[in-house]
Design goal:
single chain, about 300 residues, alpha+beta, Uridine Diphospho-n-acetylenolpyruvylglucosamine Reductase, domain 2, Uridine Diphospho-n-acetylenolpyruvylglucosamine Reductase, domain 3, Uridine Diphospho-n-acetylenolpyruvylglucosamine Reductase, domain 1, 5-stranded antiparallel β-sheet, 4-stranded mixed β-sheet, 8 helices, globular, binds flavin-adenine dinucleotide, cytoplasm, FAD, oxidoreductase
Length: about 300
């Protein structure tokens, strides 16, 4: 049912979320909006606040496991908040939160700017990248963030700087902040050779495609590495590659990935996560914490 006529903002009810996640699982949002402008976003925050509804923010849904029972309240999906601006003098790029990281990485490479090649294979948005301090192949968001534009769920906007963001391994203070990232400014090295940088970016992408199961729905690394150990090695050594619950399987290609073989339920994936955690705790005495964000009731 569309509430648009009643509210003048395109909020819909009972919207399936599975197709908005890279795992392709999860129930429906009680209310849902994917705002296209900052005004729509601001109005939707007021709308939820007036009704005392909880708010869940999703980007590309590439690090999410959403419960089969769905999510109460309003889900705000940022993927239509788009725009990239290059400052040719300073090497700074400002991107809206819904911009796909891969598209941003390609544009930066074709400008001949370096410092973002590592990000090309991350299937998230700019907002998710910053919130998760996503990283790969030696780089991470914290290396290049200059500032982050945010709006509190109560409506006030704020510019935040790295010293306030507490970036560390796959985390930032934004994860507990009740703020929505509307955009971020990054700084790169200018004046490089576009061909060399594009070739490096392509090579990094190719490497990922040979070592990670891009051909099946997944949510990237399921567990944080219990440094100095690696989750994938522990899971592989425990003989769990290929282990399956329902249609959720520990990837044969990369043991820290769980893949959806088709029609898996979020509950299958959740059970598999718990199974792996218990097996690794029993065998090695190591607690594996999840990197994937599990939301809703499991
Ligand atoms: C095949 C594959 C490979 C991957 N490889 C990597 C990798 O190499 N390195 C890595 O770090 N990750 C990787 N990931 C995980 C994922 O892509 C990253 O964590 C990514 O940054 C998540 O971005 P997203 O937009 O999809 O966020 P979502 O999954 O939608 O959300 C993740 C979290 O961020 C919050 N969030 C998202 N957008 C906003 C916003 N605008 N404002 C406030 N909060 C927000 C959500 O509430 C949630 O808590 C991979 C995933 C897949 C499927």
């Amino acid at each position: 049912m569309s509430l648009e006529l009643q509210t003048q903002i395109p909020i819909r009810s009972n919207v399936s979320l599975a197709g908005l996640t890279s795992m392709r699982v999860g129930g429906a949002a009680e209310y849902f909006i994917s705002p296209r402008t900052s005004t729509e976003l601001a109005n939707s925050l007021v709308w939820a606040s007036d009704r005392d509804l909880s708010i869940t923010i999703i980007g590309a849904g590439s690090n999410l496991l959403i419960s089969d029972r769905g999510l109460a309240g309003l889900v705000i999906c940022t993927r239509h908040l788009r725009g990239i601006e290059f400052d040719e003098q300073t090497g700074q790029v400002t991107a809206a939160s819904g911009e796909p990281v891969a598209r941003l990485a390609m544009q930066i490479a074709s400008h001949g700017w370096s410092g973002f090649e590592w990000a090309v294979g991350i299937p998230g948005t700019v907002g998710g990248l910053v919130v998760m301090n996503a990283g790969a192949q030696g780089g991470c968001a914290a290396d290049c963030v200059v500032s982050v534009q945010t709006v509190a769920l109560t409506g006030e906007t704020n510019l935040m700087y790295p010293h306030e963001l507490d970036f560390s391994y796959r985390t930032s203070s934004l994860q507990e902040s009740y703020r929505l990232v509307t955009g971020a400014t990054f700084k790169f090295q200018i004046g490089g050779n576009p061909e060399t940088i594009a070739a490096d970016t392509e090579a990094k992408l190719k490497l990922r495609h040979t070592t990670q199961p891009y051909h099946l729905p997944n949510c990237g690394s399921v567990f944080r590495n219990p440094l100095p150990q690696f989750a994938a090695k522990l899971i592989q050594d425990a003989g769990l590659k290929g282990y399956q619950i329902g249609n959720a399987q520990v990837s044969e290609l990369h043991a820290n990935f769980i893949v959806n073989l088709g029609n898996a339920k979020a509950s299958d994936i959740f059970s598999l996560i718990q199974y792996i955690q218990k097996a690794i705790a029993d065998r090695y005495g190591v607690v594996l914490e999840t990197e994937v964000k599990m939301i809703g009731h499991f």
